[in-house]
Amino acid sequence: MIKMLIVDDEPIICQGLATTIEWDTLGIDLIGMAHDGQEALPFLERGVDLILTDVCMEEMDGLELSKYVCEHFPSTKIVMISGYDEFQYARQAIRLGVEDYLLKPVNIDELVDLTTKLKQEIIEKQRLTQAEQPKRISEYVMHQLFNTPFSSSVAEKKQLLTSPYRLMITECVDYHYLLEVLSKDELDQFKHDFRVSLDEMLTEFEVEHVTFSGHENEWVTVCYCHDEHLLDLSQFQQLCDKLQKKLAHPIRFGISNLEMELSNVLRVYEQVSDLLTEGRSENTLLFSVQIQRSKKKELSYPKEAEAQLRQVIMAGDDSLLQETVDQLFLMWQEQGVILEQVLYTCREMELMLKSRIKELTSSSKMAQVTFHLQERVDLQIVNSMSAMKRLFIGDLRCLLQCITHHEGENWMMVQIQDYINKHFQLDLKASDIAEKHFITPNYFSVLFKQETGKSFSEYVNSLRIRKASELLSETSNKVFEIAEYVGYKEYKYFVQVFKKHVGVTPTQFRRMHANK
């Protein structure tokens, strides 16, 4: 049925027009009567398809009302009824867009024929408008969000959507992973399957909708329906659950509040986008503006984690690097920080690690190391903690490889051996050297044996005995002085070690070389 309003300043005429004809049998719903144009305005806001109005009324006459309706509600048809058989009224009414001009007393048959004819025109236009509505809504929303072209009058925009709606934004979780493992055709097929499934399920839920893409990993859907119950949040939770079961990859949902004005769609979109931005570090798949969320914590710079990562990288231990990064990201996830903050913190850690390791190694190759996270990162693509972690650990492995393949040698052992050669006379301990080079004592022992074929103590003793042998043969220093010089505090122990390595005591060694 179409909605009709009668406007006349004479109550008896209003009542006569309302009761003389059984409007409901004609498919017309008489929603009310007003006694001047001003009284008619509130009805217009609720939706009116056809107006029967008098011309001469005090507050706002029929011509003023017609002008207002044509400007603000162009789809509403008007029939003007007047006792004035004056051409100027009729001409002015026609110019304003009035459908017809009837004289009082109204011929009932003529009025029935006219309203029946107009009803059919209204229904046909509504049918055509309804068919075009999704396209027009989509164009209007895209214009509001992305400033795409849209030509329409203010009045037409206002009548684009008169029912309540929710705006929904969906995206693939860890889209970066899909880009890595799927071909372009496979990814396009996945997106197609998602769109088809989304359309089918919303249709099944009896929710009208329009969906379009605002980004390669973003779908914006305006869900609208006159029955607010069909737009209940529980419906969208069911939609989310069903889609997760049907698709091979998880989808994240952001849902707006129930809205009435499509002109506010930009604000609504930004609200939902911000909601998703805050939630990308979580494992949750459905976020609603309607649900109150706790405020995200600020992320403080993890100095201890940086020190651990530096030690692991310097040690060249890839498995421990993975374990350390896993623990760091688990801590961040439990703290409930925003993914954007994680990105900025990872960037800072990378630069600090590179700078510090470059100081320690003096490696020329360090300047050539580049990081993916230092480039532009789209958080709608790298939109999960797992994606961020993969990129971060990939960057750190570049540092690790630069150290472990330093000019064809094990850089760590070059540094350690150089240190021992310069300080062998001191009371050296394996644990102290390991700490100085940011590795664990156990890893130090394994690495040292692997690279030199000797234990740490064997290597130091052989270095000291070699130096002692040179001094015994080339100087006249006393044996106990030479023992102290090369790092032995106990003379008897020095003699014991010397004989084990050379086969004779220090004194015997000196005599043998003195004879030469």
Automatic annotation (TrEMBL):
Keywords: Cytoplasm, DNA-binding, Phosphoprotein, Transcription, Transcription regulation, Two-component regulatory system. One of its GO terms (molecular function) is DNA-binding transcription factor activity. SUPFAM superfamilies: CheY-like, Homeodomain-like. The keyword ATP-binding does not apply. Its main location: cytoplasm. Residues 414-512 form the HTH araC/xylS-type domain. Pfam families: HTH_18, Response_reg. Gene3D superfamilies: 3.40.50.2300, Homeodomain-like. GO terms for biological process: phosphorelay signal transduction system. InterPro entries: CheY-like_superfamily, Homeodomain-like_sf, HptR, HTH_AraC, HTH_AraC-typ_CS, Sig_transdc_resp-reg_receiver, Tscrpt_reg_AraC-type_HTH. GO terms for cellular component: cytoplasm. It comes from the Bacteria. The modification 4-aspartylphosphate is found at residue 54. The keyword Zinc-finger does not apply. This is Sugar ABC transporter.
